Amino acid sequence: MKDAFNLGDLVDRSRDLRKPAVIDLGAERPPREIAYAELDALADGAARLLAARGLRRGERVAILSANRAEFIAAYFGILRAGLVAVPVNFKLPQAQIHYVLRDSDARLVLCDAPRRKDVPGELPALELAGLEPGAPLDAVRPAAGEAAMFLYTSGSTGRPKGVVLSHQSHLWVVRTRLAGKDWSQHRLLIAAPLYHMNALALAKLAAAAHATIVLMPQFSAREYIAAIEKYRCTWLTAVPPMMAMMLRESELLERTDLSSVELVRMGSAPVSPGLMQRLRAVFPKASIVNAYGTTEAGPVVFGPHPKGLPQPELSVGYPHPAVQVRLVDGVLHMKSPAVMTGYHKLPEATRAALTPEGYYITGDVFRADENGFHTFVGRVDDMFVSGGENIYPSEVEKMLERHPAVEQAAVIAVPDEIKGTKPVAFVVLKSGRNATEDELKQYSLANAPAYQHPRRVWFLPELPLAGTNKVDRKALAGMAHL
Q1: Architecture label for domain 382-479
Q2: Is 100 exposed, middle or buried (0-12, 13-18, 19+ CB in 10 A)?
Q3: What is d(CA 218, CA 192) in angstroms, rounded to the nearest whole number?
Q4: What is the b/e burial string over 114-150, where b = at least 16 CB atoms within 10 angstroms of the residue's CB?
Q5: Nearest 5 degrees, angle CA 358-CA 364-CA 367?
Q6: Cα–Cα distance between 195 and 469 in angstroms, integer?
Q7: Rounded CA gap, 127 and 113, in Å?
Q8: Using the 8-state DSSP alphabet, how is residue 143 labeled?
Q9: Separation in Å, CA 63 to CA 69, 74, 127, 150, 422
């Protein structure tokens, strides 16, 4: 990796700039290859365009777009110009998109054509398709702690919060993940949205590694599988529900050459034993990693054991040597150079999330075993109490997914006059398999504490996904009818 000081200036110009940086499979154009030279020039063009519009250092520029090569170029260009990038979840309701744009004090929106209608009338907008290459320019040298981006949380428990992240924080992430490795030979398939930490961090890693990104505009299980074979992708990254949807395409998987895949990295949601086993069967030669990270503190938290001990199947690993972690009443606190500066315009929320010593309180509950391996249990926010017993939905979901007929399960709480709340489940069955509601209830009673068993089970062809490709629990709550 080059010795960059600006997070938008990761391209190593001493390497072969004719190499494809991005193979863009969508947007409003047919699939196309963008070489490193073109991506670099587009980023410089974006930076020059923003400077010509009179935007001042530190002002915010939003990106409202589906995945496309120009999204990455614009992001780099915003940062090179000394401005702050605000990627926006375009799947939010329009009122929330407007809230994010106004809360961030965005001065300009760079968008794709389909999203232009979602830009408030008082904000100027430019379409990404109009970006043009520009002459090389010197990237702004940011001050210590200077903001590079605001990433807004999903707002699942209220209004989205703007997470302020500095140039130095995510340069540290990129350097730490590379750590002398040569990943230039990889082709990374990215279908998760670039407005989310999972995909955006990987795109920066790929640029610094001089690897190639195969970029899908959005996730489609069948197109994802086809892209692996056609473009000989070596590195897959996704949230677990995306992998589960891919695995349901059993006939297509059987006739597709998946031998190029060397690494499957999942994160952002719990992984079940069944999902891990099925992935190992489909990708027998690949390393399959169950990872953990947060928007507020980045993707570098856990890794392999220093003594080389084998990692338990559902564990996210052993604490990374450059990261300090502790469990306080089961909740993970972590400290590293990647931790956010704070939440934009939310000093009380910032004080609640960051301890005086600089630890970020994740709100995620973990267990640590005798060897120091950590396993995710669930979100404090998702945990509910039923008749005095604490229930984490992910634990019930993992139990249900061990049933031979169950592909995916999602558990939510619904009101109950006696218990206060009680668990109910939504289940997707494996292709060609059958199960009844009563069968799954009895299975739950036989394989988990009685208080965890779902009082109702509904069957769906697929689970609804939110904008981050995690299961949309709000939508499931709307479907629950008792």
Answers
A1: 2-Layer Sandwich (3.30)
A2: buried
A3: 7
A4: ebeebbeeeeebbbbeebebbeebebbebeeebbbbb
A5: 105
A6: 12
A7: 6
A8: P
A9: 12, 8, 10, 11, 40
Which 3-state string (H, E, C) describes 277-299? HHHHHHCCCCEEEECCCECCCEC
Rounded to 5 degrees, φ, ψ at 333 are: -110, 140
Q: In whole angstroms, what is the distance from residue 349 CA to residue 336 CA?
A: 19
Q: Closest by alpha carbon to 73, among 3, 164, 11?
A: 11
Cα separation, 196 vs 198, in Å, equals 6
User: Considering the entire predicted model, what is its pTM?
Assistant: 0.86
Distances (CA, A) of 141 to 13, 80, 148, 225: 18, 8, 11, 41
Instruction: Write the burial class of residue 404 (CB in 10 Å: 0-12 exposed, 13-18 middle, 19+ buried).
Output: exposed
- Measured over all CA atoms, what is the biggest interatomic distance in the chain, rounded to whole angstroms? 69
Topology (CATH level 3) of domain 20-367 = Rossmann fold (3.40.50)
Cα–Cα distance measured from residue 436 to residue 430, given in angstroms and rounded to the nearest whole number = 13
Count of CB atoms within 10 A of residue 26's CB? 19
Six-digit token string for 442: 């009895």
The residues, any chain, with a CB within 8 Å of residue 81's CB and separated by 6 or more, are: 46, 47, 48, 50, 51, 55, 140
Q: Which tokens is 265 given?
A: 């990295």
Q: How many residues does the chain have?
A: 482
List Cβ neighbours of 57 (8 Å cut-off, separation of 6 or more). Answer: 82, 83, 140
Report the chain (482 residues): mean pLDDT per 10 consecutive residues.
91 97 86 97 98 96 97 98 96 91 98 96 95 96 97 73 97 94 96 91 97 95 96 91 86 96 83 82 91 92 94 91 96 97 96 96 93 89 80 88 91 83 92 92 90 92 81 87 63
| Segments making up each domain of the chain, as ranges | 20-367, 382-479
**Centroid of chain to Cα 171:** 18
